[in-house]
Amino acid sequence: MAGFVGMALCLLIVGASWGHAAQLLLVIVFGVQKIFDSAGPGATTFIIPGEIFPTAVRGTCHGISSASGKLGAFVGMYFFPVVQRAIGFNGVLLLGGLLMLAGFVLTLVFTPPYTAETLSRLAAATKDDLSSTTAVLWSREQRAPAEDKSLSALCDQELDESASSGGESSASHAS
Predict the structure, then answer these.
(1) Are residues 51 and 129 in the same domain?
(2) How high is the pLDDT of residue 146?
(3) Could you tell me which residue ranges the Major facilitator superfamily (MFS) profile domain spans (predicted)?
(4) Which residues of 129-138 are buried (b: 16+ CB within 10 A; e: fewer)?
(5) Rounded distance between C-alpha atoms, residue 3 and residue 42, angstroms
(6) What confidence tens digit (pLDDT) does each residue in 29-80 have?
(7) Number of domains comprising the chain
(8) Does residue 78 sit in the same domain as residue 127?
(9) Does one domain contain both 15 and 97?
């Protein structure tokens, strides 16, 4: 989430000071903006989908998420010259900063809060029926702390279940 805000601030700074500040300073601020990119939009398109979608549809949903990000990038680049002619280069940078703030808000609103325990409940609830995915992800149900498992324990449990059901696990290939 810090990535969206950091990108927004950097783009707003560069957009507001375009033509007034030293080019080297603008390049440095833009470089910092690229660092924030890795912690914001970049992360939301590949880390979160890889964690929250049920195993049965994870690849498909991850692909849809990735394709959506790439479609957005294409649309942005396609319309960049049109927008630049209309509002100027510094206007495009300012607009980019505002869009990053909008991305921050949309991510806050549409990304369900989740923990390792939520993912464990999701795996159990969607084993045979995916229709409860949304209800599990958005539920506020809390379990006692003693019932919480670490993420590594959940992964070990999933590997054990996969191995016992006849499926191959990556751990069996390591030996």
Answers:
(1) no
(2) 42
(3) 1-115
(4) eeeebeebbe
(5) 9
(6) 888 988 888 877 776 777 888 888 888 888 888 888 888 888 988 999 999 9
(7) 2
(8) no
(9) yes
User: pLDDT below 70 — which residues of the chain?
Assistant: 43, 140-175
Predicted pLDDT of residue 166: 55
Report which of 65, 26, 28 is spatially closest to residue 48, judged by C-alpha positions: 65
H or E element that contains 69 = helix 58-110
Q: Are 57 and 49 contacting, i.e. CB atoms less than 8 angstroms apart?
A: no
On whether residue 172 sits in a domain, the answer given is no
Cβ atoms 137, 110 nearer than 8 A:
no
Identify the DSSP state of 114. -
- End-to-end, the C-alpha distance of the chain in Å comes to 39
**Residue 88: which H helix or E strand, with range?**
helix 58-110
Q: How many CB atoms lie within 10 A of CB 120?
A: 19
Domain that holds residue 28: 2-110
Q: Check: CB of residue 126 under 8 Å from CB of residue 158.
A: no
pTM of the model: 0.67
Q: Is residue 169 part of a domain?
A: no
Provide the total of helices (H) and of strands (E) in the chain, helices listed first: 8, 0
Domain boundary among 64, 84, 110: 110
